[in-house]
Protein backbone atom coordinates (compact mmCIF):
# COMPACT_ATOMS: atom_id res chain seq x y z
CA UNK A 1 0.00 0.00 0.00
CA UNK A 2 2.93 2.33 0.73
CA UNK A 3 4.16 1.99 -2.86
CA UNK A 4 0.68 2.75 -4.18
CA UNK A 5 0.57 6.00 -2.20
CA UNK A 6 4.04 6.81 -3.51
CA UNK A 7 3.02 6.33 -7.14
CA UNK A 8 -0.18 8.37 -6.64
CA UNK A 9 1.81 11.17 -4.98
CA UNK A 10 4.26 11.18 -7.91
CA UNK A 11 1.42 11.38 -10.45
CA UNK A 12 -0.15 14.29 -8.55
CA UNK A 13 3.25 15.99 -8.31
CA UNK A 14 3.76 15.71 -12.07
CA UNK A 15 0.22 16.91 -12.80
CA UNK A 16 0.87 19.99 -10.66
CA UNK A 17 4.16 20.41 -12.52
CA UNK A 18 2.18 20.47 -15.77
CA UNK A 19 -0.07 23.24 -14.48
CA UNK A 20 3.07 25.11 -13.42
CA UNK A 21 4.24 25.13 -17.03
CA UNK A 22 1.05 27.01 -17.92
CA UNK A 23 1.70 29.52 -15.11
CA UNK A 24 5.32 29.92 -16.22
CA UNK A 25 4.28 30.57 -19.81
CA UNK A 26 1.89 33.25 -18.51
CA UNK A 27 4.67 34.95 -16.50
CA UNK A 28 7.50 34.63 -19.01
CA UNK A 29 6.33 37.70 -20.93
CA UNK A 30 6.59 39.86 -17.79
CA UNK A 31 9.78 38.61 -16.12
CA UNK A 32 12.80 36.50 -17.10
CA UNK A 33 13.15 32.77 -16.28
CA UNK A 34 15.80 33.32 -13.57
CA UNK A 35 13.47 35.60 -11.61
CA UNK A 36 10.56 33.19 -12.12
CA UNK A 37 12.67 30.40 -10.59
CA UNK A 38 13.73 32.68 -7.75
CA UNK A 39 10.14 33.52 -6.85
CA UNK A 40 8.97 29.93 -7.31
CA UNK A 41 11.52 28.32 -5.04
CA UNK A 42 11.85 31.28 -2.67
CA UNK A 43 8.12 31.23 -1.91
CA UNK A 44 8.23 27.44 -1.76
CA UNK A 45 10.94 27.54 0.94
CA UNK A 46 9.03 30.16 2.96
CA UNK A 47 5.94 27.92 2.96
CA UNK A 48 7.81 24.70 3.79
CA UNK A 49 10.16 26.14 6.42
CA UNK A 50 7.61 26.40 9.28
CA UNK A 51 6.54 22.79 8.65
CA UNK A 52 10.17 21.67 8.58
CA UNK A 53 10.98 23.50 11.83
CA UNK A 54 8.12 21.68 13.55
CA UNK A 55 9.98 18.43 12.75
CA UNK A 56 13.21 19.30 14.60
CA UNK A 57 13.97 15.67 15.33
CA UNK A 58 13.84 14.83 11.63
CA UNK A 59 15.99 17.75 10.38
CA UNK A 60 18.89 16.49 8.19
CA UNK A 61 21.98 15.82 10.33
CA UNK A 62 24.89 18.21 9.74
CA UNK A 63 26.91 15.53 7.98
CA UNK A 64 24.15 15.40 5.33
CA UNK A 65 23.99 19.15 4.68
CA UNK A 66 26.68 19.25 1.94
CA UNK A 67 24.99 16.37 0.10
CA UNK A 68 21.51 17.84 0.45
CA UNK A 69 22.76 21.27 -0.70
CA UNK A 70 24.50 19.66 -3.68
CA UNK A 71 21.31 17.85 -4.67
CA UNK A 72 19.43 21.14 -4.27
CA UNK A 73 21.82 22.89 -6.66
CA UNK A 74 21.46 19.99 -9.09
CA UNK A 75 17.64 19.93 -9.07
CA UNK A 76 16.52 23.44 -8.10
CA UNK A 77 19.23 25.41 -9.94
CA UNK A 78 20.87 23.38 -12.75
CA UNK A 79 17.63 21.68 -13.79
CA UNK A 80 15.52 24.86 -14.29
CA UNK A 81 18.41 26.65 -16.03
CA UNK A 82 18.88 23.77 -18.50
CA UNK A 83 15.09 23.43 -18.89
CA UNK A 84 14.60 27.11 -19.73
CA UNK A 85 17.69 27.26 -21.97
CA UNK A 86 16.47 24.26 -23.98
CA UNK A 87 13.28 26.07 -24.95
CA UNK A 88 15.35 28.83 -26.59
CA UNK A 89 16.42 26.34 -29.27
CA UNK A 90 13.54 23.86 -29.54
CA UNK A 91 9.76 23.78 -29.41
CA UNK A 92 7.75 23.14 -26.26
CA UNK A 93 6.47 19.85 -27.73
CA UNK A 94 9.95 18.53 -28.55
CA UNK A 95 11.18 19.70 -25.16
CA UNK A 96 8.36 17.88 -23.38
CA UNK A 97 9.12 14.70 -25.33
CA UNK A 98 12.83 14.97 -24.45
CA UNK A 99 11.91 15.45 -20.77
CA UNK A 100 9.70 12.35 -20.91
CA UNK A 101 12.88 10.28 -21.33
CA UNK A 102 13.38 10.86 -17.57
CA UNK A 103 11.97 7.45 -16.50
CA UNK A 104 14.15 5.70 -19.09
CA UNK A 105 17.26 7.56 -17.87
CA UNK A 106 16.33 6.91 -14.23
CA UNK A 107 15.83 3.21 -14.91
CA UNK A 108 19.14 2.82 -16.77
CA UNK A 109 21.20 4.94 -14.32
CA UNK A 110 19.53 3.25 -11.34
CA UNK A 111 20.42 -0.18 -12.71
CA UNK A 112 24.00 0.94 -13.42
CA UNK A 113 24.38 2.28 -9.86
CA UNK A 114 22.72 -0.79 -8.36
CA UNK A 115 19.83 1.13 -6.76
CA UNK A 116 17.10 -0.94 -8.44
CA UNK A 117 16.97 -3.87 -10.88
CA UNK A 118 16.12 -3.50 -14.55
CA UNK A 119 13.03 -5.58 -15.44
CA UNK A 120 11.24 -6.26 -18.70
CA UNK A 121 7.89 -5.11 -17.26
CA UNK A 122 9.23 -1.73 -16.12
CA UNK A 123 11.04 -1.24 -19.43
CA UNK A 124 7.86 -2.00 -21.38
CA UNK A 125 5.80 0.38 -19.26
CA UNK A 126 8.35 3.19 -19.59
CA UNK A 127 8.52 2.84 -23.39
CA UNK A 128 4.72 2.85 -23.63
CA UNK A 129 4.46 6.07 -21.60
CA UNK A 130 7.03 7.78 -23.85
CA UNK A 131 4.96 6.64 -26.85
CA UNK A 132 1.88 8.14 -25.18
CA UNK A 133 3.63 11.50 -24.74
CA UNK A 134 4.70 11.43 -28.39
CA UNK A 135 1.08 10.77 -29.43
CA UNK A 136 -0.22 13.61 -27.26
CA UNK A 137 2.34 16.02 -28.73
CA UNK A 138 1.98 14.74 -32.29
CA UNK A 139 0.89 18.02 -33.87
CA UNK A 140 3.60 20.02 -32.10
CA UNK A 141 6.36 17.63 -33.23
CA UNK A 142 5.71 18.22 -36.93
CA UNK A 143 7.80 21.39 -37.13
CA UNK A 144 11.15 22.26 -35.59
CA UNK A 145 13.40 25.34 -35.85
CA UNK A 146 16.95 25.04 -37.25
CA UNK A 147 19.31 23.66 -34.62
CA UNK A 148 16.48 22.23 -32.50
CA UNK A 149 18.74 19.32 -31.61
CA UNK A 150 20.65 21.66 -29.27
CA UNK A 151 17.50 22.27 -27.25
CA UNK A 152 16.69 18.57 -27.27
CA UNK A 153 20.13 17.78 -25.82
CA UNK A 154 19.80 20.49 -23.17
CA UNK A 155 16.43 19.06 -22.13
CA UNK A 156 17.90 15.56 -22.02
CA UNK A 157 20.64 16.96 -19.75
CA UNK A 158 17.93 18.49 -17.54
CA UNK A 159 16.23 15.08 -17.38
CA UNK A 160 19.54 13.49 -16.36
CA UNK A 161 19.85 16.03 -13.49
CA UNK A 162 16.37 15.04 -12.34
CA UNK A 163 17.18 11.32 -12.65
CA UNK A 164 20.33 11.65 -10.53
CA UNK A 165 18.45 13.72 -7.96
CA UNK A 166 15.74 11.06 -7.70
CA UNK A 167 18.28 8.27 -7.21
CA UNK A 168 20.76 10.02 -4.91
CA UNK A 169 18.19 11.77 -2.70
CA UNK A 170 16.45 8.61 -1.50
CA UNK A 171 18.81 7.82 1.44
CA UNK A 172 18.76 11.46 2.60
CA UNK A 173 14.94 11.49 2.57
CA UNK A 174 14.85 8.27 4.60
CA UNK A 175 17.05 9.84 7.29
CA UNK A 176 15.20 13.16 7.60
CA UNK A 177 11.76 12.90 5.97
CA UNK A 178 10.44 14.61 2.81
CA UNK A 179 9.61 18.07 4.23
CA UNK A 180 12.95 18.88 5.95
CA UNK A 181 14.93 17.43 3.05
CA UNK A 182 12.97 19.32 0.38
CA UNK A 183 13.16 22.58 2.37
CA UNK A 184 16.94 22.47 2.71
CA UNK A 185 17.54 21.33 -0.88
CA UNK A 186 15.14 23.94 -2.30
CA UNK A 187 16.76 26.66 -0.16
CA UNK A 188 20.19 25.87 -1.68
CA UNK A 189 18.89 25.99 -5.26
CA UNK A 190 16.67 29.02 -4.60
CA UNK A 191 19.54 30.98 -3.02
CA UNK A 192 21.66 30.42 -6.12
CA UNK A 193 18.86 31.59 -8.45
CA UNK A 194 18.14 34.67 -6.30
CA UNK A 195 21.83 35.65 -6.31
CA UNK A 196 22.01 35.21 -10.10
CA UNK A 197 18.80 37.25 -10.55
CA UNK A 198 20.19 40.10 -8.42
CA UNK A 199 23.39 40.18 -10.47
CA UNK A 200 21.41 40.30 -13.73
CA UNK A 201 18.82 42.79 -12.46
CA UNK A 202 16.06 40.29 -13.19
CA UNK A 203 13.71 41.66 -10.54
CA UNK A 204 13.33 45.12 -12.13
CA UNK A 205 10.03 44.32 -13.96
CA UNK A 206 8.35 43.35 -10.65
CA UNK A 207 7.52 47.04 -10.09
CA UNK A 208 4.97 46.76 -12.92
CA UNK A 209 3.31 43.56 -11.66
CA UNK A 210 -0.46 43.58 -11.41
CA UNK A 211 -2.80 41.19 -9.60
CA UNK A 212 -2.66 38.49 -12.36
CA UNK A 213 1.15 38.37 -12.27
CA UNK A 214 1.24 38.15 -8.47
CA UNK A 215 -1.41 35.43 -8.53
CA UNK A 216 0.66 33.43 -11.02
CA UNK A 217 3.81 33.93 -8.94
CA UNK A 218 2.15 32.84 -5.69
CA UNK A 219 0.57 29.84 -7.43
CA UNK A 220 4.01 28.77 -8.67
CA UNK A 221 5.51 29.06 -5.20
CA UNK A 222 2.68 27.35 -3.31
CA UNK A 223 1.62 24.62 -5.74
CA UNK A 224 4.44 24.54 -8.32
CA UNK A 225 7.21 24.38 -5.71
CA UNK A 226 6.16 23.64 -2.10
CA UNK A 227 3.45 21.07 -2.82
CA UNK A 228 4.88 19.64 -6.07
CA UNK A 229 8.34 18.86 -4.69
CA UNK A 230 7.12 17.76 -1.27
CA UNK A 231 4.98 15.17 -3.07
CA UNK A 232 7.98 14.15 -5.20
CA UNK A 233 10.10 13.55 -2.09
CA UNK A 234 7.15 11.80 -0.37
CA UNK A 235 6.94 9.46 -3.36
CA UNK A 236 10.70 8.77 -3.38
CA UNK A 237 10.46 7.78 0.28
CA UNK A 238 7.89 5.09 -0.54
CA UNK A 239 8.74 3.61 -3.93
CA UNK A 240 11.56 3.23 -6.44
CA UNK A 241 13.05 6.17 -8.40
CA UNK A 242 11.89 4.69 -11.72
CA UNK A 243 8.28 4.36 -10.53
CA UNK A 244 8.41 7.97 -9.38
CA UNK A 245 10.11 9.20 -12.55
CA UNK A 246 7.60 7.55 -14.88
CA UNK A 247 4.94 9.91 -13.55
CA UNK A 248 6.71 12.84 -15.27
CA UNK A 249 5.00 11.73 -18.48
CA UNK A 250 1.78 13.12 -16.96
CA UNK A 251 3.41 16.58 -16.99
CA UNK A 252 2.94 17.47 -20.69
CA UNK A 253 -0.55 15.96 -20.61
CA UNK A 254 -1.54 18.28 -17.75
CA UNK A 255 0.16 21.20 -19.50
CA UNK A 256 -1.94 20.52 -22.63
CA UNK A 257 -5.16 20.47 -20.61
CA UNK A 258 -4.24 23.71 -18.81
CA UNK A 259 -3.31 25.31 -22.12
CA UNK A 260 -6.72 24.38 -23.51
CA UNK A 261 -8.61 25.61 -20.44
CA UNK A 262 -6.76 28.87 -19.79
CA UNK A 263 -4.87 29.81 -22.95
CA UNK A 264 -7.46 28.61 -25.47
CA UNK A 265 -5.12 26.11 -27.14
CA UNK A 266 -6.90 23.42 -29.20
CA UNK A 267 -7.36 19.85 -27.94
CA UNK A 268 -7.23 17.14 -30.59
CA UNK A 269 -7.88 13.40 -30.68
CA UNK A 270 -4.20 12.61 -30.21
CA UNK A 271 -4.18 14.21 -26.74
CA UNK A 272 -6.94 11.85 -25.57
CA UNK A 273 -5.13 8.87 -27.12
CA UNK A 274 -1.90 9.99 -25.48
CA UNK A 275 -3.55 10.26 -22.05
CA UNK A 276 -4.87 6.69 -22.28
CA UNK A 277 -1.50 5.36 -23.47
CA UNK A 278 0.47 7.19 -20.76
CA UNK A 279 -1.69 5.84 -17.95
CA UNK A 280 -1.57 2.34 -19.45
CA UNK A 281 2.24 2.52 -19.42
CA UNK A 282 2.29 3.80 -15.82
CA UNK A 283 0.03 0.92 -14.77
CA UNK A 284 2.29 -1.65 -16.44
CA UNK A 285 5.50 -0.20 -14.97
CA UNK A 286 4.20 0.25 -11.43
CA UNK A 287 2.33 -3.02 -10.92
CA UNK A 288 3.39 -6.63 -10.66
CA UNK A 289 1.78 -9.70 -12.20
CA UNK A 290 -0.25 -11.78 -9.74
CA UNK A 291 2.31 -14.57 -9.72
CA UNK A 292 5.04 -12.14 -8.65
CA UNK A 293 2.79 -10.68 -5.97
CA UNK A 294 2.11 -14.17 -4.60
CA UNK A 295 5.84 -14.96 -4.52
CA UNK A 296 6.56 -11.69 -2.69
CA UNK A 297 3.85 -12.45 -0.14
CA UNK A 298 5.25 -15.93 0.43
CA UNK A 299 8.79 -14.58 0.96
CA UNK A 300 7.71 -11.77 3.30
CA UNK A 301 7.05 -13.95 6.40
CA UNK A 302 10.42 -15.64 5.99
CA UNK A 303 12.13 -12.26 5.73
CA UNK A 304 10.63 -11.27 9.10
Automatic annotation (TrEMBL):
Occurrences of domain EamA (ranges): 5-137, 150-286
Subcellular location: Membrane
Taxonomy, superkingdom: Bacteria
Listed InterPro entries: AA-Vitamin_Transporters (IPR050638), EamA_dom (IPR000620), EmrE-like (IPR037185)
Membrane-related topology note: Multi-pass membrane protein
Transmembrane segments: 38-56, 68-89, 95-113, 125-142, 148-167, 179-199, 211-232, 244-263, 269-286
Annotated keywords: Membrane, Transmembrane, Transmembrane helix
GO cellular component, one term: membrane
Keyword Transmembrane: yes
Family as reported in the entry's similarity comment: Belongs to the EamA transporter family.
Annotated protein name in UniProt: Permease
